[in-house]
Automatic annotation (TrEMBL):
Protein name according to UniProt: Microcin J25-processing protein McjB C-terminal domain-containing protein
The organism's taxonomic lineage, starting at the top: Archaea, Methanobacteriati, Methanobacteriota, Stenosarchaea group, Halobacteria
Domain Microcin J25-processing protein McjB C-terminal: 50-130
Region Disordered, residue ranges: 128-148
NCBIfam families named in the record: lasso_biosyn_B2
InterPro entries: McjB-like, McjB_C
Organism: Natronococcus pandeyae
Biased composition (Basic and acidic residues): 139-148
Pfam families in UniProt: Transglut_core3
Amino acid sequence: MGDGRRVDRRLTVVGAVLSFVASAGMRVSNLSTVTRVTTTIARIGTFGSTKRAPTDVAATVVAVERRIPGSSCLTTAIVARSLLVAFGYDVDVRIGVQRNDHGIFAHAWVTVDGRPIVGDDVDLEEYEPLGSGGLGDYSAHRDHESGA
């Protein structure tokens, strides 16, 4: 990619699998279950891999999601979160809402160290994050607390 981010082939394959699992999972289950399953798959798929920079993981996820029909900001966030957690990063998935003349819209994005890394392709200032403790603050450290 022109911005210095690298797309990794192994991560591309794992990311594609995670994308399909996340997309199908969100149709039949809930966010908590889907993220638990995708994080487990990501840990298996990246076992033995060299730790990747968050920007490289983000670039790979975005490249994969662009090629998968029906992907959404939420599935992209789930996939990015799962891979970043597998590499040991402290990650937050944020979900925000925007209200304008055309209706109410939701958007999901991922932050690492408080900086948006995935889903920042829109003006995040236009979205009001859902409150702490709900889906708007789905932190990766909860995996560590639950032993997942």
